[in-house]
Amino acid sequence: MNETFKAAIYVRISRDAAGEGLGVQRQLEDCRELADDHGWPVVRVFEDNDISAYSGKNRPGYNALLAAMEAGEVNAVIAYQLDRVGRTMPKLADFIALCAKKEIGLYTVKGGNLDLNTAMGRTWAHVSAAFAQGEVEKMIERMKRAYQQQAVAGKWRPRRRVFGYNADGSALDPLESTAVREAVQSVLNGVSVRSIARQWNTAGLITTGNANKWTSPTVRRILVNPRYAGISTYDGREVGTGTWPTVIDRDQHLAITAYLSDETRRSGTGFERKFHGSGVYVCGKCGAKMVTTTKSGGYRVYKCSAQAHLSRQQAALDDYVSLLVIGRLNRPDARLKLDTPDIDLTAMYARREGLQARQSELATMFAAGTVTGPQLAKATADLTEQLTEVDETIAACTLVNPVAQLVLADDTLESTWDRLEPDTRGKIIDALMTVTVHPSPLGQRKFNPEFIDIEWKKPWKA
Question: Which residues constitute the domain of residue 321?
Answer without folding.
Answer: 282-339+402-456
